[in-house]
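Subject: sequence -> structure tokens, single chain

Hey, anyone have a minute? Need the predicted structure for the following. Not urgent.
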Amino acid sequence: MEASTSQDAGFTGGLPTLYESHFAWQIRSFWWGLAWAVVGTITAIIGIGFLILGALVIWLIYRMVKGLLFWNDHKPMPL
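Reply:
Had a minute. Here:
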């Protein structure tokens, strides 16, 4: 059985609904953000981690704004 993004996110099949796509977007934002926060925190000792953490903040703001704009327009997130 092949795993796909829709199966991993628990979609019911077919195109994701507005809620499913936004929920999957939030889950991916959380896990990728957590992974980069760990990498940035560990590498902060040598100084490059602060750049990673700064980029992470900008990336998370981008993800939040994009999600809110799509939600306001009643559009599902691109998966």
